[in-house]
Amino acid sequence: MSWSPQQYTRFEDDRTRPVRDLVAAIPDAPAPTVDIGCGPGNSTEVLLARFPGQEATGIDSSPEMIEAARKRLPQLRFEVADIATWNGPGPFGAILANAVLQWVPEHAALLPRLVGLLAEGGSLAVQMPDNEQEPAYVIMREVASSGPWAAKLAEAGGFRSRMGSPEWYYGVLRPHCRRVDVWRTTYFHVLEGGADAIVEWFKGSGLRPYLVPLDEAQRAGFLERYREGIAQAYPAQPDGTALLPFPRLFMVGTR
Prior knowledge:
The chain is of the alpha/beta class. 38% of the residues lie in helices and 24% in strands.
Protein backbone atom coordinates (compact mmCIF):
# COMPACT_ATOMS: atom_id res chain seq x y z
CA MET A 1 0.00 0.00 0.00
CA SER A 2 1.51 3.34 -1.06
CA TRP A 3 1.46 6.48 1.09
CA SER A 4 1.45 10.13 0.09
CA PRO A 5 3.72 12.39 2.19
CA GLN A 6 2.01 15.44 0.70
CA GLN A 7 -1.46 14.29 1.76
CA TYR A 8 -0.26 13.21 5.20
CA THR A 9 1.41 16.54 5.97
CA ARG A 10 -1.59 18.69 5.00
CA PHE A 11 -2.52 18.66 8.69
CA GLU A 12 1.01 18.47 10.05
CA ASP A 13 0.56 20.67 13.13
CA ASP A 14 -2.38 18.59 14.35
CA ARG A 15 -0.73 15.27 13.49
CA THR A 16 2.51 16.27 15.23
CA ARG A 17 0.91 17.41 18.50
CA PRO A 18 0.45 13.85 19.87
CA VAL A 19 4.07 12.92 19.21
CA ARG A 20 5.22 16.04 21.03
CA ASP A 21 3.20 14.90 24.05
CA LEU A 22 4.59 11.38 23.73
CA VAL A 23 8.24 12.37 23.39
CA ALA A 24 7.94 14.78 26.33
CA ALA A 25 7.12 11.76 28.52
CA ILE A 26 10.34 9.87 27.67
CA PRO A 27 12.50 10.23 30.80
CA ASP A 28 15.94 9.95 29.19
CA ALA A 29 17.83 8.57 26.21
CA PRO A 30 21.16 7.02 27.33
CA ALA A 31 22.06 5.85 23.81
CA PRO A 32 21.21 6.59 20.15
CA THR A 33 17.52 6.95 19.28
CA VAL A 34 15.44 5.54 16.44
CA ASP A 35 12.06 6.51 15.01
CA ILE A 36 10.30 3.44 13.59
CA GLY A 37 7.53 4.39 11.20
CA CYS A 38 9.08 7.83 10.81
CA GLY A 39 6.81 8.92 7.95
CA PRO A 40 7.94 12.20 6.36
CA GLY A 41 10.23 12.96 9.31
CA ASN A 42 8.01 15.20 11.43
CA SER A 43 8.15 12.80 14.38
CA THR A 44 11.92 12.32 13.96
CA GLU A 45 12.30 16.08 14.14
CA VAL A 46 10.51 16.08 17.51
CA LEU A 47 12.74 13.25 18.77
CA LEU A 48 15.86 15.11 17.66
CA ALA A 49 14.74 18.29 19.45
CA ARG A 50 14.07 16.36 22.66
CA PHE A 51 17.48 14.63 22.63
CA PRO A 52 19.76 16.93 20.61
CA GLY A 53 22.95 15.26 21.80
CA GLN A 54 21.99 11.80 20.61
CA GLU A 55 22.29 10.28 17.16
CA ALA A 56 18.86 9.71 15.63
CA THR A 57 17.80 7.48 12.73
CA GLY A 58 14.47 6.73 11.10
CA ILE A 59 12.88 3.77 9.34
CA ASP A 60 9.64 3.40 7.40
CA SER A 61 8.21 0.81 5.03
CA SER A 62 7.23 3.49 2.49
CA PRO A 63 9.96 4.61 0.05
CA GLU A 64 7.94 7.78 -0.58
CA MET A 65 7.93 8.65 3.12
CA ILE A 66 11.66 7.93 3.45
CA GLU A 67 12.40 10.18 0.48
CA ALA A 68 10.41 13.00 2.12
CA ALA A 69 12.19 12.45 5.47
CA ARG A 70 15.62 12.58 3.83
CA LYS A 71 14.75 15.91 2.21
CA ARG A 72 13.48 17.27 5.51
CA LEU A 73 16.41 16.11 7.65
CA PRO A 74 19.33 15.46 5.29
CA GLN A 75 21.79 15.22 8.17
CA LEU A 76 20.12 12.05 9.53
CA ARG A 77 20.06 8.46 8.29
CA PHE A 78 16.71 7.09 7.04
CA GLU A 79 16.15 3.57 5.78
CA VAL A 80 13.31 1.60 4.19
CA ALA A 81 12.46 -1.31 6.50
CA ASP A 82 9.52 -3.37 7.69
CA ILE A 83 8.91 -2.92 11.44
CA ALA A 84 7.56 -6.46 11.73
CA THR A 85 10.97 -7.90 10.82
CA TRP A 86 13.30 -4.99 11.66
CA ASN A 87 16.04 -5.84 14.13
CA GLY A 88 18.13 -2.71 14.66
CA PRO A 89 21.72 -2.88 15.88
CA GLY A 90 20.93 -1.32 19.26
CA PRO A 91 21.07 -0.84 22.06
CA PHE A 92 18.86 2.24 21.76
CA GLY A 93 18.17 4.94 24.30
CA ALA A 94 14.71 5.50 22.85
CA ILE A 95 12.58 3.72 20.26
CA LEU A 96 9.76 5.96 19.05
CA ALA A 97 6.75 4.40 17.36
CA ASN A 98 4.26 7.16 16.65
CA ALA A 99 0.97 6.31 14.89
CA VAL A 100 2.44 3.22 13.23
CA LEU A 101 2.05 0.05 15.31
CA GLN A 102 -1.67 -0.08 14.54
CA TRP A 103 -0.53 -1.33 11.11
CA VAL A 104 1.78 -4.02 12.56
CA PRO A 105 0.44 -7.38 13.87
CA GLU A 106 1.20 -9.49 16.94
CA HIS A 107 1.72 -6.79 19.56
CA ALA A 108 2.14 -9.39 22.32
CA ALA A 109 5.40 -10.50 20.68
CA LEU A 110 6.38 -7.24 18.98
CA LEU A 111 6.51 -4.98 22.04
CA PRO A 112 8.79 -7.23 24.17
CA ARG A 113 11.06 -7.67 21.14
CA LEU A 114 11.39 -3.90 20.77
CA VAL A 115 12.04 -3.46 24.50
CA GLY A 116 14.83 -6.02 24.12
CA LEU A 117 16.61 -3.62 21.76
CA LEU A 118 16.79 -0.90 24.43
CA ALA A 119 19.77 0.05 26.52
CA GLU A 120 19.37 -0.10 30.29
CA GLY A 121 17.28 2.95 31.14
CA GLY A 122 16.06 3.32 27.56
CA SER A 123 12.38 3.69 26.66
CA LEU A 124 9.93 2.41 24.08
CA ALA A 125 7.44 5.20 23.35
CA VAL A 126 4.28 4.25 21.45
CA GLN A 127 1.24 6.19 20.29
CA MET A 128 -1.60 4.61 18.35
CA PRO A 129 -4.93 5.99 17.13
CA ASP A 130 -7.66 4.35 19.21
CA ASN A 131 -10.56 5.37 17.00
CA GLU A 132 -11.86 2.21 15.38
CA GLN A 133 -15.29 2.80 16.94
CA GLU A 134 -15.42 6.52 16.11
CA PRO A 135 -18.00 7.58 13.49
CA ALA A 136 -15.29 8.34 10.92
CA TYR A 137 -14.20 4.68 10.91
CA VAL A 138 -17.66 3.20 11.30
CA ILE A 139 -18.74 5.14 8.21
CA MET A 140 -15.68 3.90 6.29
CA ARG A 141 -16.67 0.30 6.96
CA GLU A 142 -20.33 0.92 6.15
CA VAL A 143 -19.54 2.60 2.83
CA ALA A 144 -17.03 -0.13 1.94
CA SER A 145 -19.53 -2.93 2.54
CA SER A 146 -22.58 -1.33 0.92
CA GLY A 147 -21.36 -0.05 -2.45
CA PRO A 148 -20.55 -1.65 -5.82
CA TRP A 149 -16.94 -1.92 -4.64
CA ALA A 150 -17.82 -4.23 -1.72
CA ALA A 151 -16.09 -7.29 -3.20
CA LYS A 152 -12.87 -5.37 -3.83
CA LEU A 153 -12.86 -4.00 -0.29
CA ALA A 154 -13.87 -7.13 1.59
CA GLU A 155 -10.45 -7.35 3.25
CA ALA A 156 -9.59 -3.65 3.39
CA GLY A 157 -10.60 -3.19 7.03
CA GLY A 158 -8.13 -5.87 8.06
CA PHE A 159 -5.06 -3.70 7.46
CA ARG A 160 -5.16 -2.42 11.02
CA SER A 161 -4.18 -4.67 13.91
CA ARG A 162 -6.67 -5.39 16.63
CA MET A 163 -5.71 -3.22 19.60
CA GLY A 164 -5.87 -4.26 23.23
CA SER A 165 -6.99 -2.23 26.22
CA PRO A 166 -4.62 0.00 28.22
CA GLU A 167 -4.59 -2.71 30.90
CA TRP A 168 -3.62 -5.32 28.32
CA TYR A 169 -0.68 -3.27 27.06
CA TYR A 170 0.46 -2.62 30.62
CA GLY A 171 0.45 -6.35 31.22
CA VAL A 172 2.49 -7.00 28.07
CA LEU A 173 5.14 -4.41 28.89
CA ARG A 174 5.45 -4.66 32.68
CA PRO A 175 7.43 -7.95 32.86
CA HIS A 176 10.09 -6.39 30.60
CA CYS A 177 10.16 -2.82 31.95
CA ARG A 178 10.95 -1.30 35.31
CA ARG A 179 8.40 1.46 34.66
CA VAL A 180 5.34 1.59 32.39
CA ASP A 181 3.27 4.71 31.79
CA VAL A 182 -0.03 4.28 29.90
CA TRP A 183 -2.61 6.92 29.11
CA ARG A 184 -5.40 7.71 26.66
CA THR A 185 -6.22 11.18 25.33
CA THR A 186 -8.92 12.48 23.00
CA TYR A 187 -7.78 15.42 20.87
CA PHE A 188 -10.40 17.67 19.33
CA HIS A 189 -8.84 18.83 16.08
CA VAL A 190 -10.31 22.07 14.74
CA LEU A 191 -10.38 21.72 10.95
CA GLU A 192 -11.14 24.53 8.54
CA GLY A 193 -13.55 23.40 5.84
CA GLY A 194 -16.10 21.25 7.66
CA ALA A 195 -16.79 17.75 6.33
CA ASP A 196 -14.44 18.24 3.38
CA ALA A 197 -11.53 18.81 5.76
CA ILE A 198 -12.30 15.62 7.69
CA VAL A 199 -12.37 13.63 4.45
CA GLU A 200 -9.02 15.15 3.47
CA TRP A 201 -7.59 14.27 6.89
CA PHE A 202 -8.43 10.59 6.52
CA LYS A 203 -7.35 10.44 2.86
CA GLY A 204 -3.83 10.69 4.28
CA SER A 205 -4.28 7.83 6.76
CA GLY A 206 -7.29 5.60 7.50
CA LEU A 207 -8.93 5.84 4.07
CA ARG A 208 -5.80 4.66 2.24
CA PRO A 209 -6.56 0.91 2.43
CA TYR A 210 -10.05 1.57 1.03
CA LEU A 211 -9.06 3.93 -1.78
CA VAL A 212 -5.96 2.21 -3.15
CA PRO A 213 -7.77 -0.88 -4.59
CA LEU A 214 -10.36 1.24 -6.45
CA ASP A 215 -10.23 2.76 -9.90
CA GLU A 216 -10.72 6.50 -10.34
CA ALA A 217 -14.50 6.36 -10.81
CA GLN A 218 -15.03 4.02 -7.87
CA ARG A 219 -12.78 6.17 -5.69
CA ALA A 220 -14.85 9.26 -6.50
CA GLY A 221 -18.07 7.41 -5.69
CA PHE A 222 -16.70 6.07 -2.45
CA LEU A 223 -15.54 9.50 -1.33
CA GLU A 224 -18.88 11.09 -2.22
CA ARG A 225 -20.78 8.59 -0.04
CA TYR A 226 -18.21 8.89 2.71
CA ARG A 227 -18.48 12.67 2.73
CA GLU A 228 -22.26 12.48 3.03
CA GLY A 229 -21.91 10.31 6.13
CA ILE A 230 -19.21 12.54 7.61
CA ALA A 231 -21.33 15.67 7.11
CA GLN A 232 -24.11 14.08 9.19
CA ALA A 233 -21.84 12.70 11.90
CA TYR A 234 -19.70 15.84 12.27
CA PRO A 235 -21.93 18.89 11.66
CA ALA A 236 -20.12 22.12 10.92
CA GLN A 237 -19.71 24.65 13.73
CA PRO A 238 -21.21 28.14 13.35
CA ASP A 239 -17.83 29.43 12.16
CA GLY A 240 -17.65 26.76 9.43
CA THR A 241 -15.02 24.59 11.09
CA ALA A 242 -15.36 20.94 12.03
CA LEU A 243 -14.36 19.40 15.35
CA LEU A 244 -12.79 15.99 14.86
CA PRO A 245 -12.57 14.00 18.13
CA PHE A 246 -9.55 11.71 17.89
CA PRO A 247 -8.78 9.27 20.75
CA ARG A 248 -5.19 8.07 21.00
CA LEU A 249 -3.50 5.50 23.24
CA PHE A 250 -0.01 6.24 24.59
CA MET A 251 2.53 4.11 26.41
CA VAL A 252 6.12 4.57 27.52
CA GLY A 253 7.95 1.51 28.80
CA THR A 254 11.37 2.08 30.39
CA ARG A 255 13.75 -0.82 30.64
